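Troubleshooting log. The previous structure file for this entry was overwritten by mistake, so regenerating from the original sequence record. Sequence copied from the archived sheet and checked twice against the printout by T.R.
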Amino acid sequence: MRNSTGAVLYVGKAKNLKKRLASYFNKNMDKRDNRLAHLVSHISHIDVTITASEKEALLLENAMIKSLLPKYNIIFKDDKFYPYLLFTEQDDFPRFIYHRGAKHLKGRYFGPYPSTLSVKIVLDLMQKIFQLRQCSDAFFKARSRPCLQYQLKRCSAPCVDLITKEQYNQNVQAAKQFLLGNQAATEIDSVKNIIAQMHQAAQNHEFELAANLRDKISHIRQIQEKQHIYVGSHSLDVIAVCIQDNQACVQVLSVRAGAILDSKSYFVSLSKKQLDNTEGEILQKFIAQHYLASEIKQGNITELIILTPIQDQDLIQALLQEKWERKTRIISEPRGIKKNWLIMAKTNAKEALIKKLSAATVYQTRLQALMEFLKLDNLAQFECVDVSHHGGEATVVSCVVFDQNGPLKSQYRLYTIEAGNGDDYGALKAALTRRFKKLKLNQSELAIRSYSDVLFIDGGKGQLSVGIEVLESLQIMGIKLVAIAKGPTRKPGLETLYIFDENSDKTSIKEAHLPPHSPALHLIQHIRDEAHRFAIQQQRKVLGKKRQQSTLEAIPGIGPKKRMAILTHFGGLQELMGASQEAIARVPGMGQCLAKILYDYLHQKS
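Regenerated output below.
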C-alpha cells in the first residue's frame, strides 16, 4: 500500500487477497481504531506481487518490511552482526579472540554468540580455567618477562617459555572441547586431572603449584554452580511474549553449547487493532523478521526453538531448514524441563515489560511537567547542546535529541571545533550555525524531521545570547531557548534557568528556579547530563588519538612507515616507553643513531 508520493505505508500477504483488502474498506471503518483509519485515508494505490507459494510470500513480505520499514507494520529491529570466537589454530601458541564481521581472518570460528557480553563471559572462563593467551602477536613476540595476566593466574606465559608447547596444546584441546559443547565432560575430566595434579604437587612439596591447581578447581566448580540449568550440547532459543497496555515484549533466551548465555528483550508498540493480535501472531511476525532476515546469513543458527503455538509453524520450520541447510525443530507445546524454560522466558518477558512501562510512565510525568513549566501545548522534540574541551584542546560540541518517548540517538550529532582555544562562545556559535544552517538548506531532511520545539544550552546568559544571535541571523522562528546555569556549588537542584521566547521582549530574559524535587527539573538535568556524557565520550576518543599520534609525529626523522613499524613491533606506546635503546634499534628500519634519538626524546618528555 502506497501514498500519493509513492512511499510504502504497509506490506502484507494473504491467501485470499479480495477478503484481505475488503477488511480495510467497509462500512464499519469509523468504528475502527484511529491508526487503521489513518492508514486507509492515505492509501493512493496498491501494488500486488503474485508468488508461487506461501514460502515465497512469507520471505518476500519479510524482505520488504526489512528494507522499506513501512510505518504501519510491526517491526522488531535487530540489525547487528553476531559475534564469534576466533581460534588462531595456525599459530604455534594459538589464542582465542573476539571477532565480529566478515570472516576474512585465518582460523576456526566458534559461534555465533547472541551478544558481545556472552563472548566476554566465555573468554573470561577460558582465561581462568585454561590460561590461554589472548594478547596480540606483536605484544606476544616483544615480551621478555611475564605480563600482568600471568601474575593474575589468567595466562600460562608461553611467551617466555613458562609452559611447554605440549602442555599448552593440551589446554588448547580441552578448551576446544569446551566450546564444541562437551562442557559437562570437559568439566568432569578437567576436575579429575587437576585433582590428580594437585595431589602430586603436594606430595612433591610444590605447595604454590598445588594452591594454583586448587584455585582452578574452584573456578570450575563455580561455573557448575552458576549454570544450574544444564541443557546438554544443544543450541536452542526459548521465546515468549508478554502483552500489556499498548506494548508487547518478546523475550529470547539464547542457549549455545549447553549454556544459557544471553537473555534479550525486543519491544514493539501496538495500535488498538494490533492489540487484538494473539501471542502466536506476534511471535510469527517476530520469527520471520528475526531468523529469516537476509543480513543474518548463517546468523543465530539454532537446532531447536521453543515457544507458544504460532501460525504457519510447519511453513516457518521448513523455511528455516531450507535457509540454514540443517535440521531445525520448532516445539510449541513443550513438556518437562523444556516447559520450565518457557515459563522462565515468560517471567523475564513480563518483568522486562513492567520495567519498561514503569520507566515510560516516569518519563511521561516529567515531560508533562516540563510542558506545563514552559507553557507549551505540545512538545514533540527537544534538544540540548554542550561545549567541552580539555584545557582548550580537543574542543567538541555535542547535540542530543529527545522526543516524546525518550532519547533519539540516531539524531545525536557531534561538532569538532578546530582551533577552539577554550573559547566556549565561539565554539557554541560555530556549532549552532553549522547545525541550523544545514537543517535550513537541506530540504530533504526537513521533510523528515522538523526543528525542535525547545533548544537547551548548557550555560548561562552569555551562551543563551549566542543561541539567540544564531537563530536570528538564520531567520529561524518557533524555537524556545533555555540556558541551564549550574548553581554556586554546582550541586544538582540549584540550577538557574534563563528562558527566551521569541514572542517576548527581546531585551528581557526570564530567570526561573525549579525546586529540587520538580519532575520538570529532573528531565532538564537528564538531557543536560546526556549531552555532557556524549561530549566527554567523544572528546576522549579525539584526545586519545591526538596524543598517541603526536608523541611520535613530533620526532624528527621518523615518518609514517617507521611509526607503524615501531608500534607494531612493541604493541603500543606503553611498551615502547619501557624499551631500551638496544631493543628500539632492533625494529626493522631503525638503526642505532635513530634509536638513540627516539630513546632520548621519549625519556626527556616523560
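Residues 450 and 486 are 30 Å apart (CA to CA). Archived copy saved in two places this time.
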